Amino acid sequence: MAPCRPFDCIAFNFPEVESDLTTVFKQFTNNQISLGEAAGKIQKLLPDSLTPDQMDAYLDKSFATFVGVPELIEWCISNDILFMINTTGLIGYFQRIFAKGLLPRVPVLSAHPMLRYPRKASDPSYVYELHETWDKGRHTEAVARLMDIRADKIILLGDSGGDGPHFEWGAAAGAFLISSMIKPSLDNYCREKDIAINLRFGLDYTQGCGQDTQKELQIDFMNLTSTIEEILNR
Hints:
Layout: H1 8-13, H2 18-29, H3 35-45, H4 52-62, H5 69-78, E1 84-90, H6 91-99, E2 108-112, E3 126-129, H7 135-147, E4 155-158, H8 164-173, E5 176-182, H9 184-192, E6 199-204, H10 213-216, H11 225-233
Parallel strand pairs: 1-2, 2-3, 4-5, 5-6
């Protein structure tokens, strides 16, 4: 839901490892290595852990979302719709986002613990540590069970191969699957696993064309509200 990658905050503060980070990221999103293997490689590259001040410097300079994402989160909250961020991004990244008020505070976060700061009142009420991509489905299932949410009322949003196992879980459970700015890696994963994507939203990169950030920023995520209402009311 943003035009950035999970490791951009690291590259911003340690530009000397940016090329290696890009290589690791491509290996991961193309399902050549696991998330755990990617995290291990990244930790070996880092001269030190990111401090909150370093993370804030990155956010002050580079934080961005796609159009309508903050409003969509706020709309869900105001309509008693649980919005869960379930990502390979870093827990510490989202802790600072919520501490700085850059996004509405969501109730549930599932993210990677490679970077995690001491808990603050601005943190989500429930924080799940995501070590591998298949943890996304496990965590979604755990939250659905905790909140008594039926599987056919769950909507999953994903863009790359790292979301493949989550979509695989969702397809088996009966969730509604939305691809957003879909990359070839997710399209290939779903095709190989015979997973039907219910809605393709935004740009389609499955033909291998380069990322077009300007066109991406013309896509308004608030346009998903009618689909969400339809799924929840059926």
